[in-house]
Amino acid sequence: MSSGKGSVRGGAVMDRGFDCDVLVIGGGIVGLSTAYALTRAAPGLQVVVLEKEHGTARHQTGRNSGVIHSGIYYRPGSLKARFAVRGAAEMTEFCRAEGIAHRITGKLIVATDRAELPRLHALAQRGRENGIPVRELGPAQITEYEPEVRGLAAIQVATTGIVDYGAVAERLAAASGAEIRCGAEVVRISRRAEGVAVATADGSVLRARSLVNCAGLHCDRIARLAGDRPGMRIVPFRGEYYTLARPELVRGLVYPVPDPAFPFLGVHLTRGIEGGVHVGPNAVPALAREGYGWGVVRPGDLGTTLAWPGSWRIARRHWRYGAGELHRSLSRPAFAAAVRRLLPAVDASDLRRAPAGVRAQAVLRDGTLVDDFLIREAPRTVHVLNAPSPAATAALPIGREIARRALASVAVRA
């Protein structure tokens, strides 16, 4: 019980009835960046991060192609555009200052069909509106950058790079000074006027002045545990990757022109920081929120997805696209055929299975795939309800924005 006395910690007050000032749920890159931003904005603030796994960055953060995105794809003025452009520069500087291996490689976005040319030109214009240096290329110029790649036209984006986001997350955790508790699955949340109490599966209870929900694949569940109605559900999409047996075929990063109807970038080629080339991902419905293979089925997760009206509306609206993705998931030759649009020298024997990722895609009741970052506030609580790619790229500015909102809900006494 609190004695009514408190100690000032960098502008926040810690009463003895509280275990910390801010409690962050989720030890991925967004949660860790938020903890990092909190302790820098208010030195001495007590921050605890709860992560249900036995280590940080085990899901979306540690299972992606490691690209530092430029921000070219995103609608000017959107949170994605603003945070990605700023985040790419900040991520590069953070890695340089912390000695984290990274490289600014640039990338090509390649049109292989005449129908894609208007979209490619529109992307170039969008990039310029977002302040990104772009160069439009013809077929001969494409081969100067990527001798094995074929296309009708391309955009060269100079500010794209590569990094190991798991290493970034590890450094953010250490630099934040926050207490990181792994193996701490949240099972109950009680929110009162004076603060928030969170119970974990091992029976522990922590009391905090403010709660931040950065739970990624489980963020909607955490929001409901807190007594809020998020108005969306996480529908998991698995992204399957291959590695290229002949990495010498690709020098850097090569992307197709994305379909504007979907928040996915299509199968692309990414030379990673370790030197290998990732091919993928596709996007297929996952049968569990952590369903990294077809054999992983969790009836509770699947039932939640099927019970959400938006899931059925997606299926009706986009069944042709989905059928193609499923075919490529089940057929390596079909996947290779998709890659050959960009890289004609590839065949199925060049593809080696690599670990898959799962995207936490927020879907509204009407079937809308939420495209931008979605951050909502409730009393003493901040919920991050959609933080897909380029969230890792934009982690530092996103973390500051979440921290700003969380600090506003922490009671400050002189």
Fraction of helical residues: 25-40%
Overall, the morphology is globular
What distance lies between the first and last C-alpha atoms, to the nearest angstrom?
21 Å
Structural class based on helices, strands and sheet pairing:
alpha+beta
- Under CATH at level 1, the class of the largest domain stands as Alpha Beta
Q: Measured on Cα atoms, how large is the radius of gyration?
A: 22 Å
Largest sheet: 9 strands, mixed
Unreliable spans: 1-14
Mean model confidence by pLDDT: 92
Total DSSP helices:
11
How are the elements arranged and paired?
Blueprint lengths: L5 E4 L2 E4 L4 E6 L3 H13 L5 E5 L15 E2 L10 H20 L3 E3 L2 E5 L5 H13 L4 E4 L1 H7 L7 E5 L3 E3 L1 H12 L2 E4 L3 E7 L2 E6 L4 E9 L5 H7 L6 E13 L8 E4 L11 E4 L5 E4 L3 E2 L13 H9 L1 H9 L1 H12 L1 H9 L10 E14 L9 E5 L2 E6 L8 H14 L6
Parallel strand pairs: 3-4, 3-14, 4-11, 7-16, 14-22
Antiparallel strand pairs: 1-2, 5-10, 6-10, 7-9, 8-9, 12-13, 13-14, 15-18, 15-19, 15-20, 16-17, 17-18, 21-22
Q: What this model shows, in words?
A:
The protein has 414 residues and is an alpha+beta fold. It has 2 domains: 6-59 and 167-231 and 372-408, FAD/NAD(P)-binding domain (3-Layer(bba) Sandwich); 104-160 and 234-364, D-Amino Acid Oxidase, Chain A, domain 2. It has 11 helices and 22 strands. The chain has helices spanning 29-41, 79-98, 117-129, 139-145, 165-176, 219-225, 299-307, 309-317, 319-330, 332-340, 395-408; strands spanning 6-9, 12-15, 20-25, 47-51, 67-68, 102-104, 107-111, 134-137, 153-157, 161-163, 179-182, 186-192, 195-200, 205-213, 232-244, 253-256, 268-271, 277-280, 284-285, 351-364, 374-378, 381-386. The strands form 4 sheets. Strands 7, 8, 9, 15, 16, 17, 18, 19 and 20 form a 9-stranded mixed beta sheet that branches. Strands 3, 4, 11, 12, 13, 14, 21 and 22 form an 8-stranded mixed beta sheet that branches. A hairpin with a 4-residue loop joins strand 13 and strand 14 (205-213).
